[in-house]
Amino acid sequence: MPLLYAYDIECIEKARHIIEGNLAVRHTVDKLAVIAGMSTTKFKTAFKEHVGYNSFEFAQMQRMKLAQKLVVENYHSIKTIAGLCGYLHASHFNTAFKRSFGITAKKMRVQLTLIKKD
Predict the structure, then answer these.
(1) Are residues 67 and 113 in the same domain?
(2) Same domain, 63 and 41
(3) Residue 16: how many CB atoms within 10 A of its CB?
(4) pLDDT by residue (tens digit) across 47-93?
């Protein structure tokens, strides 16, 4: 396993913050590598080594964390939540949400509403 230097970690953290700062944007690996000041190959390796996931997996996990938070808060429609999480189509969002949590966002919201009423 390659050793990451402090500067490499700093660069990866910069890219990680870019991903977390705007989950609605689909950042390409090439653009993230440029932001980090690394070659695409080095970026991919360093990101996975430092974060534990590749940049796509990391972004997806962050999107789903945000989605779950927004579904629980119940202030936005599911379609709006999909857009805030970077999905152009609610159906794609629903598929990703169900893959992550085992139920659709709508069903989660209904279940939470029923629990709050009890």
Answers:
(1) yes
(2) no
(3) 20
(4) 999 999 999 999 999 999 999 999 999 889 999 999 999 999 999 99
